[in-house]
Amino acid sequence: MQPQSYGDFSSILHQKMGDQRAPLNVTIETSYRCPLTCAHCDNNLPMADRQARSSELSYQEHCRILDEITEAGCFWLLYTGGEIFARRDFLDIYTYAKQKGLLITLFTNGTMISPRIADYLTKWRPFSIEITIYGHTRETYEGLTGIPGSYDRCRRGIRLLMERNLPLKLKTVGVSINKHEIWDMKRWVEEDLGLNFKFDSMINPRIDCSQSPLATRLTPEEIVALDLEDPGRKSAWTEHTQASVDRMHLWADGDEVYQCGGAIRSCSIDPYGKLRLCVLSHQDSYDLREGSFREGWEDFLFQVRHKKRTRLTKCVACGLREMCGMCPANGELENEDPEQPVDFLCHVAHLRAHAVGLEVPPHGDCEYCEAGEHYPELMRSLAALEEGSAAEELASMRNERSSFLPVLSEEPAAAAGACGSGCGSCS
Questions:
Q1: Do residues 199 and 182 make contact, with C-beta atoms less than 8 angstroms apart?
Q2: How far apart are the C-alpha atoms of 326 and 417, rounded to whole Å?
Q3: Strands 103-108 and 128-132
Q4: For residue 186, how far is the Cα from the chain centroid?
Q5: pLDDT tops 50 at residue 172
Q6: Cα angle 109-113-115, degrees, rounded to a multiple of 5
Q7: Structural contact between residues 128 and 108, judged by C-beta atoms closer than 8 angstroms
Q8: Burial degree of 88 (CB within 10 A; 0-12, 13-18, 19+)
Q9: pLDDT digits (tens, 9 = 90+) for 180-223
Q10: Architecture of domain 21-218+258-305
């Protein structure tokens, strides 16, 4: 038998699906309850929240939904929260999912992992486990989580999984509280532990549209400065934007609000059985307690996915959306309007483009393009970056602009790129 890499297998599977809709990737949020109280989190609730606990899907309901999603074609399953281990019966739910033959990824903060849980996961091995770390030092970690002792419990959970050689990856979210320790975390994870590490600095409002997490969000200058310090991130942004340019003609011919993989290849289910396009989008939902997954996928989500745009915005003809992450879910959370551009994301995208030497073509009435009202502010942001440690590198990158992406076309085909927010619908 000829061995095949997982990447090749995944690519071939998606190619074979062609234009056929199928829920290959399903995300299930087991609970919004969590033992941590992170200031940046978009959905955490107290562990003792009785109303939340009593409203969550039962074990039997989880099993029924697992039966239905596998019958509908689910192949990859992500369990996330809140905290997945906030449910005492999570391992029972997980085992049933494993018995269905699904490739399962677990998102956890690691603080509730015990030797018993680690041993169980060794027996019922997941496809992948990802733990979010919130700081390199105890002071920073617990300053963000708000819970004394959480730093040591997280490190213990990591150690327990590593001792059993389980497939573990670590990540962090860059916020104002831990920005000074991101590279320390990266060195610790990659050099000391020998694990993969990634970070993201994009913070969303809470799923109830509360803006409170945005108090921890980095400034556009801080976000782009972090990008510039990591050669891998710089090249990735360039490659992603080129891919966006290559896909622009696909979006130019469309007139739909959603342009990601939501309800095409993926969907999400919240702790209370609400089926949605993705974990961030909460305007439209289908109650799986009242109907079947097949009905929700084939009828309800089909209609949501094919909603028509009501107006043209600057995002429609923008070639920088891979640098931006703007998607209808972001518009919903920050503006209560899926079609309204998010100003902060626009600022970051344009600053990224200028910082790595990309020309920004006209794409409508954009405040951050030349002659736009925020363009002077953008240039001040760029100057602030140049005055920092990355000044020489920034100048060199702009002098070698030809080695980066070509100037983006101003033809009508230069339409919106794909979502880059990092949600399951974008995978």
A1: yes
A2: 10
A3: parallel
A4: 19
A5: yes
A6: 160
A7: no
A8: exposed
A9: 999 999 999 999 999 999 999 989 999 988 899 999 999 999 99
A10: Alpha-Beta Barrel (3.20)
* Residue pair 307/329 in contact by the 8 Å Cβ criterion: no
The answer, yes or no, to whether residue 18 has pLDDT greater than 90, is no
DSSP state of 407: P
Instruction: Please name the amino acid found at residue 209.
Output: C
Residues in the chain, total: 427
Q: What ranges make up the beta strands (E) of 1-90?
A: 25-31, 33-34, 45-46, 76-81
pLDDT for 319 equals: 80
Return the SS3 of 189: helix
DSSP-derived secondary structure letter, 273:
S
Rounded-to-integer distance, Cα 221 and Cα 60, Å:
49
Q: What span, in angstroms and rounded, lies between the C-alpha atoms of 68 and 251?
A: 32
Residue 280: per-residue pLDDT: 93
The pLDDT of residue 411: 30
Q: Is the pTM of this model over 0.90?
A: no
Tokens found for residue 387: 């005055």
The domains of the chain are located at 21-218+258-305, 222-256+310-427
Integer Cα distance of 232 and 298 in angstroms = 39
Task: Please state, in angstroms and rounded to a whole number, the distance separating the CA atoms of residues 333 and 42.
Answer: 10
Residue entry with tokens 């009905």: 295
